[in-house]
Amino acid sequence: MPRAGRIHGSILExxxxxxxxxxxxxxxxxxxxxxxxxxxxxxxxxxxxxxALAMIEAAERDGRLAPGGGVVEYTGGSTGxxxxxxxxxxxxxxxxxxxxxxxxxxxxxxKALGATLTLIESVGGGMxxxxxxAMIEAAxxIQERKGSFWTDQLKNADQLSAYTKMADEIWEQTGGTVDAFxxxxxxxxxxxxxxxxxxQHRPGVRVVAVEPAESAVxxxxxxxxxxxxxxxxxxxxxxxxxxxxxxxxRVSTAEAMAMARRLAREEGLFAGTSxxxxxxxxxxxAEKLGPGATVxxxxxxxxxxxxxxxxxxxx
Length: 315
Known about the structure:
The structure is a single chain. By secondary structure, this protein is of the alpha/beta class. It folds into two domains: about 10-45 and about 165-305, Rossmann fold (3-Layer(aba) Sandwich); about 50-150, Rossmann fold (3-Layer(aba) Sandwich). The chain is built from eight helices and ten strands. A six-stranded mixed beta sheet has the order 1-2-10-7-8-9, with helices on both faces. The protein has a four-stranded parallel beta sheet with strand order 5-4-3-6, with helices on both faces. The two termini are about 35 Å apart.
């Protein structure tokens, strides 16, 4: 775990070891306390630094990624930024497939770190199953043409170890007092990896997955378009494991955006739309569990990544 006061060998050593922050104003007066894992403290301002590092290092260990080899991935943005950071440090050329559906800040950050971007146009700036599949296909073509290592995040179970570590941090920071864990579903690795590990520490921990109400496929709804970046692929993702989840919460884009703005103005915690969705669901859980319980969720990334989007533009 990173410690202040020592000299680090590279920026990669600053991944993980993030603080846990208790809400002061937004937590329900007669509900459980709510703690947020402050993943904006990672080097690129996102929890995705953890999983990107895990995927690259696993591929290095087993020879899928040789020194100087290329890397390719499709992404809603934050995974691309995280991979760009890691590939810059390690010296791997990187191709990222992304879309105009995701913030300009993420795309610009990825390019600034040296990645080559391929942009897939969305319909109306929304995320849906067709866009996800178009990005996947573009990444596959690049992999075939260049022979790059494809991290293929929706299928890559190597990332689960990153969230096992995050769960251990949460358990230590709370002194083993976690009653529920709430997290949005993108690849499903974070909710599954963190939740499963917390249950190893304490079998009774309640794990709540969050998905966009407009595309609630995990809970049996229809696929649709939404604007909660980085989550809600529009289909049941390969790493999804239903028996690892106790409850699925549906949160709309409007609810998520409104809550992210409240989080900034009332708690001083600046985050993106997926964090807003997490907090909407966490508040519901906290009200159900009542006083004396502890609900942990994730501040997935910094709001700086969304300043040009509908979330904060003109706010």
